[in-house]
Structure formats: C-alpha cells, structure tokens
From TrEMBL:
Signal peptide: none annotated. Residues 180-320 form the Glycerol-3-phosphate dehydrogenase NAD-dependent C-terminal domain. It comes from the Bacteria. It catalyses: sn-glycerol 3-phosphate + NAD(+) = dihydroxyacetone phosphate + NADH + H(+); sn-glycerol 3-phosphate + NADP(+) = dihydroxyacetone phosphate + NADPH + H(+). Keywords: Cytoplasm, Lipid biosynthesis, Lipid metabolism, NAD, NADP, Nucleotide-binding, Oxidoreductase, Phospholipid biosynthesis, Phospholipid metabolism. SUPFAM superfamilies: 6-phosphogluconate dehydrogenase C-terminal domain-like (SSF48179), NAD(P)-binding Rossmann-fold domains (SSF51735). Substrate binds at residues 108, 255-256. This is Glycerol-3-phosphate dehydrogenase [NAD(P)+]. The lineage of its organism: Bacteria, Pseudomonadati, Pseudomonadota, Gammaproteobacteria, Pseudomonadales. Pathway: Membrane lipid metabolism; glycerophospholipid metabolism. It comes from Stutzerimonas stutzeri.
Length: 340
C-alpha cells in the first residue's frame, strides 16, 4: 500500500466515522462509504455526521462516498464497520473485487446461521483476501474525542498487522498486535451480552460489589465458552477480552449498557432498542450464544439468566434468586493444580 493510496472505511456510523477521522489525522486519504446519499452530502458540506457522533468535526481528508464498487477498487486496506446484520449482504455482491485486499473487521457480532464471526464471513465471501480484526475497549465517541485509547489488531498475517499499526497508531491511539484472531474477535462479540446485564444492574441501583462480581464472573463464563471453541484463554486477559468487558460494563456510553439500563427501568426490549436508535449487537448475540452454549454443553448461567428474562418471561428477581442460590463453585477455572 502506498501512502498516496486511499484507505476505505465501510459504514458511516459511530465507529466507522471515528476510525476514518483517526486515519485522516495520520495523513491518509480516507474513502468513508455509507449507503445514504443525503448523509454523505451532509458530511461533505457540513463536515459533521448528521446522525452519529454529533459535534465531532470530520476532517477534510475523509471523503464520504456512496459508491462501494469504486471504493473497493481504489483501496487495498479496507476497514469494515458495518453492523453484523448488514455485513454479508453489503459485501457479497462485490466478492470478486475483494481478492488480495486487506479486510479488517471492526464489527463485534455473530451471525446466527453457523455461529460465524465477521472475519469468518469475510473469509467465506473473499477466500483470497487477507483478513484481520480490530477490537478492544474503543467507545467510538471517546476515540473521536481523543481519549487515550488502545486497541488490538489480530491476524495471522503479520504484514497486515503491521500495516494497520502503521496507519492507525497515533498521538492518542495505540494499536497492539495479536496472532489470535478468533480469540480477539470472540471477546469483542461476547462482552456485549454482559454489558446489557451491567446496564440493568445499574438501573436497579445495585452496588459496586455487584458490578465487580458480574464482570469477573462474566469473564470466567466467556473464557470457558471460548476455550470450548478452541480459543486461547490468555487472549481474554488482554484488551479485547477483559479490557473491552470493563469498558462496556461500566460506561453509560456503551449502547449495550444503555439497552440494559432501559430494561432495568422497566422498558420492554423493543422499546429499549428503539429508544437507542443505534446498533446494540448484544441483543442478537444473546440468542445465538444461548443456543451455542446449550449445543456445546458449556455452563453459562449469566447468559441463560439474561435469555430467560428477555425471551422466556422470567422476572429478574427469579433469575437473581437462581444465580445466587446456585451450587457453590470454584473461583478461577484455569488454575493448574500441578505445581503452579
Ligand atoms: N460504536 C462503538 O463504540 C463501537 C462499535 N463497534 C462495532 O462497530 C459496528 C458498527 O457499529 P457502529 O458504527 O457503532 O453502529 P452505528 O449504529 O453507529 O451505525 C451503523 C452504521 O451502519 C450502517 N448500516 C446499517 N445497515 C446497513 C446496510 N444494510 N448497509 C450499509 N450500511 C448499513 C448505518 O447506516 P444508516 O445510518 O443509513 O442506517 C450506519 O452508518 C458494530 O458491530 C459495533 O459493535 C466497535 C467498536 C466500538
Ligand atoms: O464495543 C464497544 C466499545 O469497545 C462499544 O460498545 P457498544 O456497542 O455497547 O456501544
């Protein structure tokens, strides 16, 4: 990739916009693809995204576009910041243009059919592309407002990791590399579910002990699940595991947390989602995860509990009772007993 070649960001939502601005700050020409011509025109003329990240100035080097085919042709490095529900449908028609490109998913969701992560979908659509993921504790607004932030680029393709580090690393944004693409991506998708629970607990006035218990047991539960799928548990101790879990379970800026908060205030799930008006991936992930955990026979009491409240007509009080009175367990699953 030459310095003159533009970099593509697909998706004109909060995260796509934040990433596009970071790249532009580092001197790159960015093609920010979105589906809505009116939104593109507003960005072109007002240098603000009218719907997402209000108040954030979009730099001149970010060029909004609605022409996906030309965007893909012009760029070798492509960040994908589309919701998980849209990624396959948006890119499948352009599969022939993706061979040899570096495709980096920033999307933290799971496709129900086949339990596929977004980078696996990219791999399926474009078997000859070079694939990576970007994930970590990266609330879009904080990234855009230059809060000191770290993230992880994960791929077995070391050159791809280096390219992403080169273009994104900057004054306020540090990019760490990992070879564990699956673990990094799974961490980003799973934590959304626990952020919904944390939002509910916050709305109900539960205390800091409760939040700490929830985060820690969530980490145990998601790690147990990931190990069953063959992931490396150590990845969950990094930014894309516990790092992202902490930020989404403690911040009102997290959309998944906000959905949980609204549920805790007594709104229905539909009301909570429509009040948000943005993507909260955890709402779909909880369904997919519950099924997969049952199929794999992984013990995930928090996931089962949230699912029961959202979709099986159980009350939160009933579920809290079940969780707290469950049989006593050991604290850390992965402590070796052979001398360490
Ligand atoms: N926001 C954050 O803090 C972070 C988000 N992420 C991940 O990034 C992904 C995107 O989230 P985010 O940017 O926040 O979401 P937003 O809700 O802010 O924006 C979603 C964007 O996707 C577009 N979109 C929706 N459906 C389609 C479609 N079928 N075709 C083309 N474009 C479509 C929307 O367009 P329109 O406006 O026209 O509907 C909008 O531009 C999620 O998986 C999220 O988990 C990752 C890290 C941080
Ligand atoms: O993934 C995120 C922060 O790392 C954003 O979380 P939300 O999608 O819940 O806003």
């Amino acid at each position: 990739m030459t310095r003159q070649q533009p970099i593509a960001v697909l998706g004109g939502g909060s995260f796509g916009t934040a990433i596009a601005n970071l790249l532009a700050e580092n001197g790159h020409h960015v093609l920010l693809w979105m589906r809505d011509p009116e939104q593109a025109e507003s960005i072109r003329t007002l240098r603000q995204n009218p719907r997402y990240l209000k108040g954030v100035e979009i730099l001149a080097q970010v060029e909004p576009t609605t022409d996906l085919s030309s965007t893909l042709d012009a760029c070798e490095l492509i960040f994908v910041a589309l919701p998980s529900s849209a990624l396959r449908q948006a890119l499948q028609p352009f599969a022939a243009q993706l061979g040899g490109k570096m495709l980096v998913s920033t999307t933290k969701g799971i496709e129900a059919d086949g339990f596929m992560l977004m980078s696996q979908i990219l791999e399926q659509i474009a078997p000859h592309a070079r694939i990576g993921v970007l994930s970590g504790p990266n609330l879009a607004r904080e990234v855009a407002e230059h809060a000191l932030t770290a993230t992880v680029v994960a791929s077995q393709d070391e050159a791809l990791c280096r390219s992403v580090q080169q273009v994104l690393h900057g004054r306020t944004f540090r990019v760490y590399a990992s070879a564990d693409r699956f673990g990094v991506e799974l961490g980003g998708a799973l934590k959304n579910v626990y952020a919904i629970m944390a939002g509910m607990a916050a709305a109900l006035g539960m205390g800091e002990n409760t939040r700490s218990m929830l985060i820690t047991r969530a980490l145990a539960e998601m790690t147990r699940f990931a190990v069953k799928l063959g992931a490396n548990p150590m990845t969950f101790l990094g930014l894309a595991g516990v790092g992202d879990l902490i930020v989404t379970c403690t911040s009102q800026k997290s959309r998944n947390f906000q959905v949980g908060y609204a549920l805790g205030e007594g709104l229905s799930l539909d009301e909570a989602v429509s009040r948000l008006g943005e993507v909260a991936e955890g709402v779909n992930t909880i369904k997919v995860l519950k099924c997969k955990a049952e199929e794999l026979q992984v013990y995930m009491p928090l996931v089962a509990g949230l699912h029961a409240v959202l979709f099986e007509g159980r009350t939160l009080d009933q579920i809290i009772g079940v969780l707290m009175r469950g049989e006593p367990k050991t604290d850390v699953d992965f402590i070796s007993t052979d001398g360490f």
